[in-house]
């Protein structure tokens, strides 16, 4: 996927894949992939997405 900003001042690309791991009252979400932002001045920022955790999915106060 590639997206460009107005007047192509930036370009953004990346991909992700998700692997959910359900537990009794929570879900761990493993996220793999890479993201990249490139700017007209030549600056390039690359990062990997972080994993997520959802707690109290059935009972209790939900936490993300």
Major sheet, described briefly? 5 strands, antiparallel
SSE string: EEEEE
CA-CA gap between termini: 27 Å
Q: Structural class of the helices, strands and pairings?
A: mainly beta
Percentage beta strand? over 45%
Kindly provide the radius of gyration, computed on alpha-carbon positions and rounded to a whole number of angstroms: 17 Å
- pLDDT under 50 segments (min length 5)? none
Mean pLDDT: 93
Domain count: 1
Helix content: under 10%
* Dominant shape: elongated
- The total beta strand count reads 5
* Discrete helix count: 0
Describe, in plain words, how this protein is organized in 3D.
This protein is an all-beta fold and 64 residues long. It has one domain (2-55). 0% of the residues lie in helices and 59% in strands. The protein is built from no helices and 5 strands. It has strands at 2-4, 10-22, 26-39, 44-47, 52-55. Strands 1, 2, 3, 4 and 5 form a 5-stranded antiparallel sheet that branches. Strand 1 (2-4) and strand 2 (10-22) form a beta hairpin. The mean pLDDT is 93.
């Amino acid at each position: 996927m590639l997206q460009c900003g107005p007047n192509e001042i930036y370009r953004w690309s990346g991909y992700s894949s998700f692997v959910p791991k359900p537990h009794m009252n929570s879900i761990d979400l493993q996220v793999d992939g890479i993201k990249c932002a490139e700017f007209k001045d030549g600056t390039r920022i690359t990062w990997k997405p972080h994993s997520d955790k959802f707690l109290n999915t059935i009972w209790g106060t939900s936490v993300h």
